[in-house]
Design a protein that fits this description.
Blueprint (H helix, E strand, L loop, with lengths): L32 E5 L25 H13 L4 E5 L9 H8 L4 E6 L6 H9 L4 E5 L5 H8 L4 H14 L4 E6 L8 H10 L4 E5 L5 H5 L1 H4 L3 H9 L8 E4 L12 E4 L25 H5 L2 H7 L8 H7 L6 H8 L23 H6 L2
Parallel strand pairs: 1-2, 1-8, 2-3, 3-4, 4-5, 5-6, 6-7
Length: 357
């Protein structure tokens, strides 16, 4: 999950009244953080998998290649890396890569946690892991197991979370809102409190990988999504993060991501739609200067939601979703209530379905 860096609110007017109107899009010399999609393999077979684990025949970067890339990040003054997969712990050398980052970078990891036992949790704490983002798709065991196609996955994920918390590692539980878990979403938020997790994230369903192939079974209309989200009562001590507007702007301006094969894609959710160059052939900052990457960072969009541009300082919403539903990187994000215009998000465009076969 990409944490959005919140910008300061606009300065008040001369009379002390709140400032209104969109703020200019921020400009950066380099991204705030880098997501390293370290592998495309997993021990589960989730219906919602964006990475479509096991589908790629291209070789993944070796241990030495990832270490060279980490050295580059450190030399360029980066501070924050976010590892995800696939399932990172499914890669045998993953703890070696974490150790290589120790005391050099702030490290967070996205995982389904089923491979985290008590001893691994203690090792991760010793390696200085700042936070785990744990994918748990439902608070109802039967639904979780249905979505992961893995009997017992609910119990295994919860056990991993408990081991991490017992070791003193902060945990954010991540769920992807779908037709399967929407009726029980309050149970999901309550579970975060029960498991002593200070954050819970409810993410949108992105039309990528295996999720695209299972779209008709999983997706909801935007009003159904809003009803599920707006009905939540967040327990004290738990922060709710979600990827709908106006709390989720265009994050292309601040992020970078690299696929398991070394392709620079800007954001993990853009992995099927862009390629700015391979980091084994050029530096990450060279790919940051790719013309399309610059265009997306510039917030060059056809229309801007007034709520989003005021609170986020960026325009147009998620570029991945906008492109998926329209084929245009400049289009409005249909997950925005201001811009949906009756778009049925349960139905993907024909061209996207053809590409997903």
């Amino acid at each position: 999950m990409n944490e959005i860096v919140r910008l300061p609110l606009p300065m008040p007017g001369p009379d002390g009244s709140p400032a209104h109107g969109p703020r200019p899009a921020p400009k950066l010399e380099k991204p705030f953080k880098v997501t390293i999609c370290v592998n495309q393999t997993c021990s589960m077979d989730c219906k919602l998998c964006y990475a479509d684990c096991g589908a790629s025949k291209r070789p993944e970067l070796t241990t030495a290649q990832w270490k060279t890339f980490i050295d580059e990040l450190i030399a360029e003054g980066f501070l924050h890396v976010f590892f995800e997969g696939g399932e990172p712990f499914h890669r045998p050398d993953f703890e070696e890569l974490l150790a290589y980052c120790y005391r050099k970078l702030f490290v967070a990891v996205r995982t389904h946690a089923t491979l985290i036992d008590e001893s691994r949790a203690k090792r991760l704490k010793a390696l200085g892991i700042g936070r785990l983002y744990v994918d748990l798709f439902a608070a109802i065991p039967e639904i979780q197991d249905e979505l992961t196609c893995q009997p017992g996955s609910y119990d295994a994920v919860v056990a991993g979370i408990r081991h991490a918390r017992a070791a003193g590692i902060k945990v954010t539980i991540l769920g992807i809102l779908s037709a399967k878990n929407a009726p029980h979403l309050q149970h999901y938020v309550d579970l975060a409190k029960e498991l002593d997790c200070d954050q819970v994230g409810v993410l949108r369903l992105y039309p990528l990988g295996r999720a695209r192939k299972n779209w008709a079974e999983l997706s909801l209309t935007l009003p159904e999504m809003m009803a599920a989200l707006n009905g939540l009562k967040v327990p004290p001590g738990v922060q709710l993060m979600q990827s709908w507007h106006p709390k989720d702007g265009n994050c292309c301006w601040q992020t970078a991501a690299v696929t398991p094969q070394g392709d620079s894609v800007g954001c993990p959710y853009m992995r099927e739609y862009v390629n700015y160059g391979n980091v084994t052939e050029r530096s990450l900052l060279e790919t940051w200067d790719h013309p399309l990457y610059r265009q997306l960072r510039a917030n060059d969009v056809e229309d801007s939601c007034p709520d989003c541009s005021t609170t986020q300082g960026t325009h147009g919403g998620c570029r991945s979703t906008a492109y998926a539903f329209t084929g245009r990187f400049t289009a409005p994000d249909p997950y925005c209530t201001h811009h949906n215009n009756g778009e049925d998000l349960r139905v993907l465009p024909e061209w996207l379905l053809r590409e997903g076969t």
